[in-house]
Amino acid sequence: MTKVALKGLALHKTRAVLTTLAVVIGVAMISGAYVVSDTMLSAANSLSGSAYDNTDAVVTKKQAFTNGSDTVGTAVTVTPVVLQKVRSMPQVAAATGDITEQAKLIGTDGKVIGSGPYFAVGLDPVNGKNLTPFKLTEGRFATAPNEGVIDKGTADKKHYKVGDQIKVSAIGPVKSFKVVGITKWGSVDNFGTATAAIFT
Questions:
Q1: What is the domain partition of the chain in residue ranges?
Q2: CB neighbours of 178 closer than 8 A, spacing ≥ 6?
Q3: How many helices (H) and strands (E) in the chain?
């Protein structure tokens, strides 16, 4: 049996080489797919873990209906009264509210930075800074309406630094904000194609 197989390989060398090459390429592609998926899963777990490192509970309003994992319609919000009730509970050391929306950062070339998602967060600069997943690497959080904080990945790629102006497109016309801080998400410096803008 072995002799027959070897004789067949000797007679059809090109076919044997191409078959071997196909097997090697197939195994390499499957291995590559596993490496990429494991890397992405690890990054996602790191991001989601970092998001709530210092948070014991998150209070949200009940959603009327959803489409898959995305809320349909306007953002689900809680009232300031709910926040006050949470803060008044004896087991609560600190509680803060934030607003999460979308806003696109516009580069000096007039083009949108990144390809999404485009995170925009309205953060309480006093009570929120210890409970947010955003960790400053430079500067401070925004305290005035014309100030903003951007993610470190954007700052590094587009050469922004504290004190620069950056344009932001959200609801309404494009506005210019002074960069007062650079942030990462937990321990993650780069958000990939995503960008983040944090306001007061």
A1: 2-51, 96-199
A2: 146, 147, 148, 163, 164, 165
A3: 4, 10
pLDDT at residue 164, as a whole number: 93
* pLDDT for residue 14: 80
Decide if 196 contacts 121 (C-beta within 8 A).
Answer: yes
pLDDT in tens, 176-190: 999 999 998 877 777
pTM of model > 0.85: no
Torsion angle, alpha carbons of 198, 132, 84, 148, to 10:
-10
User: Coil, strand or helix: which one is 41?
Assistant: helix
Residue 198's beta-bridge partner residues?
121, 149
User: What is the Cα–Cα distance from 166 to 183, expressed in whole angstroms?
Assistant: 15
Interatomic CA distance for residues 66 and 115, integer angstroms: 24
